[in-house]
Write the structure tokens for this entry.
Amino acid sequence: MQQQYVPPPPRPAVNKPTLRFKGTGATFFGILILNMLLSVVTLGLYYPWARAKTLQFLYSSTELEGSRFSWNGTGKEMFIGFLKVMGIFLAVGAIIGITAWLKVPFIGILVYLAVIIIIFPLAIHGANRYHWSRTTWRGIRFGYRGNRNELIKLFIKEMLLTIITIGIYGSWMVINIRNYVISNVRMGSGEFKYEGDGWDFFIMNIKGYLLTIVTLGIYAFWWQADIFRYYIDHLRLTHNGKEFNFRSTASGGAFAGLLIVNALLFFFTLGLGYAWVQTRTISFLMENVDIEGDLVLDELEQTEEEYKNAMGEDFADAFDLNII
Amino acid sequence: MFTGLFYNHQVAKAIPVNIQVLPEGLLLRIAAADGNGRPIHWLYTALEAELVDRNFIRITDTGDNPGTLEVNNADFVKLFLQFHKPSPTTRLHQLVQRGGLKWSLGIMLILIALALLGNFILLPWWADIAAEKLPHSIDKQLGEMARSNMNEPVDTAASRLLTAFAAQMQWDTEDTLTFTVVSKDIKNAYALPDGYIVVYTGLLKKLKTPEQLAALLSHEVAHVSCRHSVRTLCRNMSSMLIVNLLFSGGGTAVNQLYANAASLNNLRYSRQNEAEADIVGLATLRHNHVNQEGMLSLMQTLQKLDPQNQNLEFISTHPLTDSRVRYIKKEIAANQATFTLQPTMDTIFQQLKNRAMK
């Protein structure tokens, strides 16, 4: 009998795309200094355009598997968003003024509190929609599929629990919101998943806090490395049943080296070294993310729509929320 | 012929292409498996380019057949930008992105020049306009605020004498003036914005003529009538505005640094104030027919004081430079005026001296 050769079922190939930051401090310095000049000359009106230029540089300098990311947002979009944000602030101010004039300041305060509570989830939602829709890689748009009302409900629930527990629930709040937001981020047809646990995050932070006190601050670098690892290691990208896992390789010692040199660089250049501090930091973070899995990036398809309303982005910027 | 990566906006697949730069556009040939490249024609007019650095450029066709091309080649970047002209601000950005530090440093120099211009020319101008708009009640409040922080031993009898001395002169100001003698061995005098003028006995002892005292009071009253405190305050506030404009979001360490630099700058401003107070003070002396030389001899008397003496506060706040003597001399020469002997002032002055010497 002829022996037939049966090839073994093909084992999924393991892909290890690299993530690298290619930007130099000198180029970034040029961009920042020109932004500064144009902001001064236009009495600050250039700010949204300056922000767009900065983001463009940072995204276009980041490379995944040999291709750079791209930021397609424009200064004009963000300027319009800024005007809307100003409009809302003015409207809220007007309502409070009118209720005070009508001798019912109580209603004004209620409106103010309601706006404050709702504005944060709105900012997170809007910023993510705008930000991801304007991010592309190999011409494929990212996207955010979160539901606004769900996020507002989630935010209010988590916020109340945090207030009731005098802040202890904060760890769960951060992680639950992170789980919701990141798990709704798309990279074309690829889907991100974040599965963090409030309890783990809480224990890690308590440990970091106590050890930092005991070691007179030295442990702060290792705590930082733990937080970074927590954010990276629970992240996955899935597509058609295949997936990529993300893993941080940054140690506390490496963080210490980075942050100490950064501080010296900033201090001894009287702040002029800011551009180099930033590029060094981003380079470090990118180099310390390992990606591994059977997902094939070439197979990602264009699925996400364009979204050009930058209001949420500007809200987030106004509150100095570093969401992304 | 250059090579680049092409993306068709449908799948995240990097497709290697050969690129030819033509006068009217780009010709891309996809290196297909069978060796026959399918050509794509791109016109410059339909393209958007994003220059990332001197080597890397991303070109997007936003038309019916969207696609993106990425090229990592400095020669290509240079050639492409000769044909594809972007907007002026984008071109400015491209200069710093391609030229590197040379352009950045140039821009930094422009920024420094602007900051200097703003600080030394625009700011004093704005500050004076702002100060003029502020009501005089602000001066009063400032003076009261300053006074509530000091508790000095007032010599009531000497103050009465000083007030009588000052009443012999006409003061060209709307503010109510209060003249006070404080019995402390400090060689100084000062004026608060609400018209509260203090002379220490330490300084009174050193004065030799009533003209010198008249000159001293004229100088201090000029600080009040010229509203130097409010003007300095306005200037400080506008300094902070400029610092914020430059460094909004630029790190607090830098902010601190420049805030301190701003306070050093105030010394310079206060010297300008001193000069103005001298000139206005001289005019007051002239109107009152007091010998202007009193101002000059006041300076000279103060200059002769032992510089080792720790109590020479007048010198640190009122620098007795040669230039100061020089412009006072010049001002007197330019505005000659008659003066008369003032017997009443002389009598009061002697009484004051006697009391101070006790």
